Every structure is written in C-alpha cells, then in structure tokens.
Amino acid sequence: MAxxxxxxxxxxxxxxxxxxxxxxxxxxxxxxxxxxxKNGLNVNITTVYRYLNKLTAEQCVVKFPSKNGSGSIYQxxxxxxxxxxxxxVKCIKCGRLIHLDCGFMTEIENHxxxxxxxxxSCDGSILYGICNLCKD
Amino acid sequence: MAxxxxxxxxxxxxxxxxxxxxxxxxxxxxxxxxxxxKNGLNVNITTVYRYLNKLTAEQCVVKFPSKNGSGSIYQxxxxxxxxxxxxxVKCIKCGRLIHLDCGFMTEIENHxxxxxxxxxSCDGSILYGICNLCKD
DNA sequence: ATAATTGCAAACACTTTGCACCTGT
DNA sequence: ACAGGTGCAAAGTGTTTGCAATTAT
Lengths: 136, 136
Fold this sequence. Notes:
The structure is a homodimer of 136-residue chains.
Chain A: H1 10-21, H2 29-38, H3 45-57, E1 61-65, E2 72-76, E3 88-91, E4 97-99, H4 104-116, E5 119-130
Parallel strand pairs in A: 3-5
Antiparallel strand pairs in A: 1-2, 3-4
Chain A binds a DNA duplex (25 and 25 nucleotides) through helix 3.
C-alpha cells in the first residue's frame, strides 16, 4: 500500500493559501472560487470541490452543513485540534468558528449521558450565536 | 390586517398526520412525499415544500439543516416547546430528536457567555449522537 | 364568487461524475 | 513516461417560482 503522491499545483497552492488565511472562520466552495478568480486564477469549481473533499477525507479540513441546509462550509483544521472531540460554535454575523475544546465538553457529555442517556458525537454538531466581536 | 384563512385540504391533512405520527423525530420533504404516494395520494413535492415552509413560518414546525448539508429536516413542534430557547440533539441512528429544554441550557449559555464571550442562539443549533435506544 | 391551494414545467443552487486532456515529478 | 490533477459538459440532488387550473369556503 504505497502512499499516493501529491502534485503541488497552483490551484491547490492558492486554495490552501485561502483556507489558511481564513482558518478562524468557515468558507464555502464558492468563496474559494471567487477568491481564485479575483486573483486571476482560472480554477474550475469542480477542482475546488475535489480538493476540499480530498482534504476533508484526509482530515485536514472540517466540513459542516451550512446553516440553511443548502451546501457545506469548510474550515482548515489546525494540526493540534482534535475536532471530533469537541463541538463547534459559529457566529451568525461574522462566521467565525470557535472550537469548544475546553473542560466544558466533559460537562456537556456528562449531562447528555446522565440526564438524557445520549452519547454525544461531535461530528457535524454545531451551535450558533453571536461572538464577542459582533455584539453591538 | 385580517388573518388569511386556511383551506383544509386532503394534502395538508395527510402531511400533518404524517408529521404528527413522526413528531419524535425529523422528516424530510421526500419522506412525506413517499408516505403520501404509498397511501395513494398524488401530492406534488412542490406542495409539500410549500406547506412545510408555511408551517415553518408559522412556527408550527422547526426546520434544521440536514447533517450532510444537502437539504433540510423538519419536525412538528409540540405546542408547549419554545424551540428557540433550547438546542436540539439528534440521534444519528434512529433520527429521534430530543429537546434540551432542561436546566442545562442555562449552563451552556452561561459557559459560552462567560468563557467564550459568545451569545447562544438556538435556531439551527443541533448536536448529534446516539440515543439510549440505539446503543448496542 | 373569490381567495387559497395545487400541479406542472422550468429555473435555481450546490455538488458529483465521466472522460479526454494537461502537468508535475 | 506516467500517475495525478484539471476542465468541461452533463447529470444528480434538493428546493423554489411563475402561472394557469382547481378547490374549499
């Protein structure tokens, strides 16, 4: 089972660059596509989806359903975050995504387990609200 | 501002019936459509969407993004549940949706507020996991 | 009678797939 | 040279819209 090798193409370089520049929020395939065309790179949206799917499969990117149910949103994963071990909270104004990787996760899990007999799975679990920067 | 009146049609009667019969879980427009055709009712999926949208606007139904980001799921709302005041937890196996309308909501809100400077909004917020009935 | 509801066809938004061509190594 | 990546066109979902026809009141 030899590792598949990756070619370092311009498209991927710039998609990654954009994901990195926006790693505190979530982006859509269309966001990436817009960014690329604004920078004069003709990258088909198919390519964007294919790369996003690849990165998601490799767990370099976390994928969430978008709030309105039409499509998905993506975030580049910081190497040290085990996103399947915490839930995420997203600001409905600025889009910033925060990782709830704090002690409170245990409390949530315990409550759901003890009071509701429910085993939490963080994959896809997302809460919405308004972050400190977006309060009036 | 006179109230618009509602006609009591067969389509709506059966859509509601199905929603009621499944009010402990969530259903898709396709689920409803399938149920209707299995029962010999030729109701166009457009009608299903229109009624679901109406019920959602009237807050008789709660609408969530589906986990995979393709489409939405709906649940008939029990009259006494203020679904915008609590979050929801959905079983990834059986689909059952539980309303976290317990004291723990205050704890979640307080934690997000104090430790993350984040004001929770329950609309669309959904957690996933496995319910007591679906554990091996 | 008339306002609400429906079906149909079309459009829309988002995503995936097949295949031929191109590119990085 | 060849595996891997890409563009394009087409198809696949899920949802909405305009309009004419139908139905509940």
